[in-house]
Amino acid sequence: MGMNDTPSGERIHIGFFGMRNAGKSSVVNAVTGQDLAVVSDTAGTTTDPVSKAMELLPLGPVMITDTPGFDDVGDLGELRVRKTKQVLNRTDIAVLIVDGTRGMQAADRQMTGLFREKNIPFLVVYNKSDLLSSADDIPGYHDNPDAPEKNCVIVSAEQGKNIEKLKERMAEIRPVNEGKMQIVADLLHPEDFVVLVVPIDKAAPKGRLILPQQQTIRDILEADAAAIVVKEYELRYTLEHLGKKPRMVITDSQVFAKVSADVPEDIPLTSFSILMARYKGFLEMAVRGVSAVERIKDGDTVLIAEGCTHHRQCDDIGTVKIPRWLRNYTGKDFNMETCSGRSFPDDLSKYAMVIHCGGCMLNEREMVYRMKCAEDQHVPVTNYGTLIAYMQGILKRSLEPFPYLKNLIETAEKQQF
Predict the structure, then answer these.
(1) Measured CA angle at 249 (ends 244, 255), to 5 deg
(2) Which of 189, 328, 359, 406 is deepest in the core (most CB within 10 A)?
(3) Bridge partners (DSSP) listed for residue 55
(4) Please, which residues have CB within 8 angstroms of residue 196's CB and are 6 or more apart in sequence?
(5) SS3 of 338, please?
(6) How are beta strands 353-356 and 301-306 bridged, if at all?
């Protein structure tokens, strides 16, 4: 895979923060070796976060985001905090640039507080070391509670001094994804057969499979298993002539009911959407939130959230099919709102529930963040696949490959009948 092919969700997201005139953009440019950010003598030139995908050694494929400098007038305003939190929701490593000649200000400390609140590994980078004779010249350096030697680096963007050391420190504090979820490989053995049911619908770009399908096939191959891809009408014939029982069948949620009828009970069955929810770390929450459909009342508002904005892959499913199925299922007259791409509302309090897509275009941190937002505001959240399986009465079957969810499924089903 070439560098440009690494999906944004799989890159390490690094956010650079700092006050106006701390030299933040100069540090970003020194680290990336290219003019990513606007540098000028006018304070506050960067007005919107600028993101760029690149290869940064020793880290590998990264997404660098340079954020607008915040003012040095005491506290960060409420709006600034909210905006910063939005960037932090998809940040794996935060880098705070401080003017070494001034030391950390109140707003800088507020910033490190936000990093801690979000559990984001961070570095404090004191810039302008060319104007200092030693660390002793940095106001308050030794009183910094952020254990200077551990996560502080002193650099000069101007002279390129210690920039390599900064990159190495970034690589050291990167979150380690040792226990990284696999989409399905951990459920397979070498030489297993897996049958994938992919309706060729108008939502998939001509001649291509949508991202979750590609990623699942890739994952099956990495497990040394075989992926057999069929359309829903060829499924029964394929199962009868395979000559070996497949380890599992994975289907597109939209044809779940038909596929469930065609797959014998002794073959595990699940959906791409359910596997994606597990991969993005929110399957448990989706199962916990799904029975909120039983509590929807006339006049409630339900939010349908999609991760992608481009020629929408799940266009008709999110905007047409789910609303229709939901109205038929509940028999209630409720309002539907939709949001797509990165525009996820900060305030979810008006919604009876949030129904999210599989999130294949969002990185895990962004997904987890959205779930946390909902959890903080006590708004139940589920995803397309879990909801469809639930409304069709096959949730239990579609979650059989994940025994650890057994109790949650039983709780959901008790509320259903």
Answers:
(1) 135
(2) 359
(3) 61
(4) 213, 216, 217, 227, 228, 229, 230, 249, 250, 251
(5) strand
(6) parallel
149 pLDDT higher than 60: no
Per the CB < 8 A criterion, the answer to whether 151 and 124 are in contact is yes
Taking the C-alpha atoms of residue 54 and residue 61, their distance in angstroms, rounded to an integer, is 6
pLDDT number for residue 382: 94
Phi and psi, residue 305, nearest 5°: -115, 130
**Predicted TM-score (pTM) of this structure:** 0.62
Question: Between 48 and 371, whose confidence is greater?
Answer: 371
Element (H, E) at 170: helix 163-173
Nearest to 148 by CA among 210, 104, 214, 82: 104
**Given the DSSP bridges, would you call strands 60-66 and 50-56 parallel, antiparallel or unpaired?**
antiparallel
Specify the DSSP element, H or E, that contains 153. strand 152-154
Q: Kindly indicate the confidence band of residue 365, based on its pLDDT and cuts at 50, 70 and 90.
A: low
**CB under 8 A, 24+ apart: contacts of 324-327:** 325/388, 325/391, 326/293, 326/296, 326/302, 326/355, 326/387, 326/391
Enumerate helices (H) and strands (E) in the chain, giving the number of each. Answer: 16, 14
| Residue 2 in this model has a pLDDT that exceeds 60 | no
Please name the residue ranges forming H helices in 246-314: 256-262, 272-279, 283-289
Strand order through the sheet with 93-99: 50-56, 60-66, 12-18, 93-99, 122-127, 152-154
Say which residue the tokens 């997201």 belong to: 13
Two tokens at 17? 């923060």
Distance CA 103, CA 189 (A): 56
Range list of H helices, 194-271? 211-222, 235-241, 256-262
